[in-house]
TrEMBL record:
Gene Ontology biological-process entries: extracellular matrix organization
Lineage summary: Eukaryota, Metazoa, Chordata, Craniata, Vertebrata
The protein's name: Heparanase 2
Matches recorded under Pfam families: Glyco_hydro_79n
Similarity comment text for this entry: Belongs to the glycosyl hydrolase 79 family.
One MF annotation (Gene Ontology) recorded for this entry: hydrolase activity, acting on glycosyl bonds
Superkingdom per UniProt: Eukaryota
A GO CC term attached to the entry: extracellular matrix
Xref: InterPro entries: GH (IPR017853), Glyco_hydro_79 (IPR005199)
Stored Gene3D superfamilies: Glycosidases (3.20.20.80)
Length: 296
């Protein structure tokens, strides 16, 4: 790399601004680092479980668009990760409550509407060509979800979300059909009286996914540095590290996930107190995570 400076005189003999010319010699014969082919990835917030919106993940149009993003990670997580609870219910329609005029949603059976949708099974995928009424319903549901998210954000009050086995099946079917890899965030705010993580719900989820042979990577919690603002609870880096060690042990106890990737701690910008939380976490659990995650 070289540097040259050029100067001259402008109108009426006034000196021009000095400019610097930099010559770069770039070695393109070998790479210094290689990023994962999944580097540019996407997120789905658990809020899609609300109001049956997750049922539209079987949309052929949506799957086709998502395939254009592959290979990539799909992170199922966000602020509502820590309000997510898993329940192994198969027939979601009985647990949804009244959905008003949403005829098609009420008639979902297992993964798909019974006779209202023609299935296109490709590589085991269940893809649906939704009729126009379903597309209109999709837009309506998306609008409702957005309003609910905005209300929760401004009020800083978040409601619990139940992730049923059926909803999880639909999520994984979407991931498989799209050629993506799922990273599933577990609820870190499920706590014992001593403030340690209560992993009973997480273990139930792990066992269910293992029984289905779902290829999933895992994460615990979302932006733990913001828990005091959100729910009035504080979890320091050392305790969070112990929680990750506990989750790692749970993964080791489920044969199918002994080699599964574990990511974390998914903090916000690593500054000041957040940097201290990250430091405590790394000292305790730096060796158990496959990669360190943080949000901009």
């Amino acid at each position: 790399m070289g540097e040259r400076k050029a100067a001259g005189r402008g109108a009426r003999g006034q000196p021009r601004d000095t400019r610097t010319l930099i010559l770069l010699d770039v070695n393109i014969r070998s790479s210094v680092r290689t990023v994962s082919e999944n580097f540019l990835s996407i997120q789905i917030d658990p809020a899609v479980v609300h109001n049956g919106w997750i049922d539209f993940l079987s949309s052929k149009r949506l799957v086709t668009l998502a395939r254009g993003l592959a290979p990539a990670f799909l992170w199922f997580g966000g602020k509502r990760t820590d309000f997510l609870q898993f329940q192994n219910h198969r027939n979601l329609a009985k647990h949804r409550g009244e959905l008003g005029p949403d005829y098609y949603l009420k008639n979902y059976e297992d993964d798909i509407v019974r006779s209202d949708i023609a299935l296109d099974k490709q590589k085991g995928c269940k893809i649906a060509q939704h009729p126009d009424i379903m597309l209109e319903l999709q837009r309506e549901k998306a609008s409702q979800v957005q309003m609910a998210l905005t209300k929760e954000q401004f009020s800083n009050t978040y409601s619990n979300i139940t992730l049923t086995a059926r909803s999880l099946d639909k999520l994984y079917n979407f991931v498989e059909c799209s050629g993506l890899h799922l990273i599933l965030g577990l609820n870190a705010l499920l706590r014992n009286p001593d403030n340690s993580w209560n992993g009973s719900s997480g273990l139930s989820l792990l066992k269910y996914c293992a029984g289905k042979k779902y290829n999933i990577s895992w994460e615990l919690g979302n932006e733990p540095n913001s828990y005091r603002t959100m729910v009035g609870r504080t979890i320091n880096g050392s305790q969070l590290g112990k929680d990750y060690i506990q989750l790692k042990n749970l993964l080791q106890s489920v044969r199918f996930y002994t080699k599964a990737s574990l990511y974390g701690p998914n903090i916000g910008r690593p500054r000041r107190n957040t940097a201290a939380l990250l430091d405590g976490f790394m000292r305790t659990a730096g060796t158990v995570v496959s990669a360190v995650t943080w949000q901009q």
